[in-house]
Each structure stands twice: as structure tokens, then as C-alpha cells.
Amino acid sequence: MSVSLEKYILAVITINRQRVGGGAPVFYADEEKELEQIAFTLEKILDGIAHEITPDTLIIVKHS
Fold first, then answer.
1. Which terminus of the chain has fewer CB atoms gathered within 10 Å of its CB, N or C?
2. Pairing, β 26-28 against β 57-63
3. What is the overall mean pLDDT for the chain?
């Protein structure tokens, strides 16, 4: 039996520093505009897709 990852979190971007932690790289933004810009840039670099978790927290996910 083979196990493979098909979806995984590449990065977390947030305005709220108390909200996140864990194993993925975390990027902090000061405001919503910066949050969106970081997510947009990381989407292109990492070949992933941004998903909104809350209005102040986004994740970049790789869908294989």
C-alpha cells in the first residue's frame, strides 16, 4: 500500500500574530493590503493557491 500527499500547506500569512503557529512557514503582514500582496507573490513563487481561513489569515496550499 502506498501513501502520498496530494494537498499540503506551504505557507501561512496573517495579520494576527497570536492566531498562528506550527510547521509551515509563517509570514506576518501589518495590514490587509500587505496580506494580499504577500499571498499573491507566494502563490506565484510556490505554485500554490491561496485560501482564506479568516479575514486576517490566509494559507497557500499545493494541490498535486
1. N
2. unpaired
3. 91
pLDDT value at residue 26: 95
CA distances in angstroms from 8 to 3, 20, 30, 33, listed in the order given: 14, 16, 25, 25
pLDDT tens column, 11-44: 999 999 898 888 899 999 999 999 999 999 999 9
The angle at the Cα of 57, spanning 19 to 7, to the nearest 5 degrees, equals 105
How many Å apart are CA 35 and CA 29, to the nearest integer?
5
The secondary structure of residue 55, as a DSSP letter, is T
Of 46, 55, 61, 50, the closest CA to residue 14 belongs to 55
- The reported pTM is 0.85
Inter-residue contact 11 to 58 (CB < 8 Å): no
